[in-house]
Amino acid sequence: MDCSVCTTMPLILRPPRNTICGACYEAARSIINMMNKLETQKAIDNSNGSPASPANSCKNGVTLSDAKRWCSEQKDMVLQQIEDMAFLRSFVDAYKQQIHTDILVIPGDSASPIPAHKAILATRSEIFKNMLDFDECKAAPNNTIVLPELKYKELESLLEFLYSGTLAPEKLEKHVYALILAADKYEISHLQKHCERYLLNSLSASNALDILEIAETCSNQQLMETTFNFLVENIRDIVCSSRFEEFARKCPHLNVQLIRASLNSSK
Ligand SMILES: [Zn+2]
């Protein structure tokens, strides 16, 4: 079929050049549907959560030319966000170059303390804020804070995340368990989501038992459910692993739930 959209030379087609193939039609429909959903959501957000009134929503629905305008707006927005992020990265420089640091964060493995900024700690975690407020009440302010559960490298990664809002994949991979526990303890929800996303994406037969244990410790419901269902589906591989014996000894309650769910699902 001579499609006037995806053909490489539309000019050789006979006028009025308005034929369109199934693939282009479907793609155009899904772009328009996606745009309609976004416009409706925007109208709901603008009206503070109440359902969009007919006046706010698009009467005739969006067209492909709206989609083109929207893409261009999105591009500008992304460029703006990249610039904003670059501006905020100056916090990371202040941390790395130790510019005007005012507190020493001490890890639990008796390694050297890491200089940081109270303001960053206090704005990233309500728990840190309370710890620092409490210190300020003392007669002689103690400019140290101890995070006993973190080793030096784990603490370094936590601080890097607090300053930059992100972490290199290799650091996340290495310290994800320590970081998700710290995120839970110090109520750093952005870090919690970051670690949760990483663990869900890397879920496999070799790490699922560790993830289930961590998810239970952090009371992370979504991580627990997904990991639990994964374990039930792959129970044959899991029970044969040496890790399973250790898990059964350490978490007998989870082990019982897992065996029951597996037996029920195989009925
Ligand atoms: Zn086409």
Characteristic key phrases:
267 residues, mainly alpha, 3-stranded mixed sheet, 13 helices, 64% helix
Proportion of residues in extended strands: under 5%
Contiguous low-pLDDT stretches (5 residues minimum) are: 54-58
- Name the ligand types: zinc ion
Count of DSSP H/I helices: 13
Q: End-to-end distance, in Å? A: 51 Å
The average pLDDT score comes to 88
Tally of strands: 3
Our Rg estimate from Cα atoms comes to: 26 Å
Topology as a string of helices (H) and strands (E): HHHEEHHEHHHHHHHH
Question: Which structural class do you get from the secondary structure elements?
Answer: mainly alpha
Question: Order of strands side by side in the largest beta sheet?
Answer: 2-1-3
Overall 3D geometry? Answer: flat
Let me know the largest β-sheet.
3 strands, mixed
* Helical residues, percent: 55-70%
Walk me through the structure:
This protein is mainly α and 267 residues long. The protein has a domain at 18-88. Helix content is 64%, strand content 4%. The chain has 13 helices and three strands, in the order αααββααβαααααααα. The chain has helices at 22-46, 64-88, 90-96, 118-124, 126-136, 152-164, 169-185, 189-201, 208-217, 221-233, 235-239, 242-250, 252-266; strands at residues 103-107, 114-116, 144-147. A three-stranded mixed β-sheet has the order 2-1-3. A hairpin with a 6-residue loop joins strand 1 and strand 2. The longest helix has 25 residues, at 22-46. It starts with 21 loop residues before the first helix and ends with a helix. It binds zinc ion. Zinc ion binds next to helix 1. Residues 3, 5-6, 20-21, 23-24 line the site of zinc ion.
